[in-house]
Design goal:
With 153 residues, this protein is an all-alpha fold. The chain is built from eight helices and no strands.
């Protein structure tokens, strides 16, 4: 799967675009040198950063979404407080990413959470080259979906 998206097409903030490009490059470098867990963590970070920015760009639509996280009074919480999984679910519900990107992003989040050593020990699984390849394709699919969103609007 090839990345057809340019982060600058998706992200409104140029400083964030530069930061996320560096993280994507870092994920690639980690992948090439066998730092599989680090690569997965970086990929999860890129996905979260991009979805966060897109949700902010489309704040009204995201906040109206039935899946938007709510406070105790039933009002949408500020997007800055949304978790990766909430961002993914809202992105899918709003039609920004397709079902495959949503489903596999849930798994990417699970692997990204191995940033916590106890989680990695509890899972008794350590990411390898195949894990990184899968996670890479999840991020590519989501970015390609988001790129289409911005070209169509």
């Amino acid at each position: 799967m090839s990345l057809r998206a340019d982060l600058a097409e998706i992200i409104a903030d140029t400083a964030l675009t530069d930061l996320l490009r560096k993280r994507l490059d870092e994920a690639r470098t980690c992948r090439e040198y066998g730092a599989h867990l680090s690569s997965v963590i970086m990929l999860g970070s890129v996905l979260e950063g991009v979805l966060h920015d897109v949700a902010i760009q489309h704040h009204a639509e995201a906040s109206r979404c039935q899946l938007a996280p709510k406070d105790r009074n039933g009002r949408p919480r500020p997007i800055q407080q949304w978790s990766l999984i909430q961002l993914v679910d809202v992105a899918h519900a709003c039609g920004w990413i397709e079902l495959d990107a949503r489903r596999f992003s849930h798994e990417l989040r699970e692997y990204r959470n191995m940033v916590h050593p106890a989680r990695e020990l509890a899972d008794m699984h350590h990411p390898d080259e195949d894990t990184v390849a899968i996670c890479w394709n999840v991020v590519v699919a989501a970015l390609n979906d988001l790129s289409r969103l911005h070209r169509e609007r």
